[in-house]
Amino acid sequence: RNFSSLWPRASKNVPDHPANPFHMSGDMDFFLLREQEQNKSLLDREQKKKLRVHEKMTYSSKVSAKNTSLRRELQLEDETEEQAEQLRSFHEQVAWKLAMTREKKLEPNAINRYEDRNRQMLLIQYALDMKRSEIQRLERLAAQEEAELERAETFLEKDAALFDEFLREKDHSSVQALRT
């Protein structure tokens, strides 16, 4: 219905239909919709009157039923969002893995070369460790020999000192024997 003919002054102040959000749609009859809703509510009321006492719902049970249905819908919505997020992250991970493996195509001999290189590195490391241990053993042996040489040198010096003293005493005693 067009109300602009009923209120001529109002039509001058109201802009065209696309700019005004409060215009009446021409293809819908709102009065018919209102009448249908009233009839539906009357039918619902009459059906509820026919129900037995234990079948009827109280106000609080109606509210809680609405709340539980809303909660259930929200939970379902959250679960679907979580599932969608998990699926999205899974696809991203799979795509990343595929991209990484595409870049690293190994030829059959590459693994053998890798193993050979590792074997060579292990052998070199083993040889180095053996040489280090041999060097340490030889250094310990040299230190022992030096200690023995120093000890022998001190014994030799003591012996030389004792021999010199013996010779002096011998000279002294021979001089004494000649004088007497």
From TrEMBL:
Residues 117-179 form the DUF4200 domain. Pfam families: DUF4200 (PF13863). Residues 1-21 are annotated as: Disordered. It comes from the Eukaryota. InterPro entries: CFAP_domain-containing, DUF4200. GO terms for cellular component: ciliary basal body. The keyword DNA repair does not apply. Residues 128-155 form a coiled coil. Keywords: Cell projection, Cilium, Coiled coil. This is DUF4200 domain-containing protein. The lineage of its organism: Eukaryota, Metazoa, Chordata, Craniata, Vertebrata.
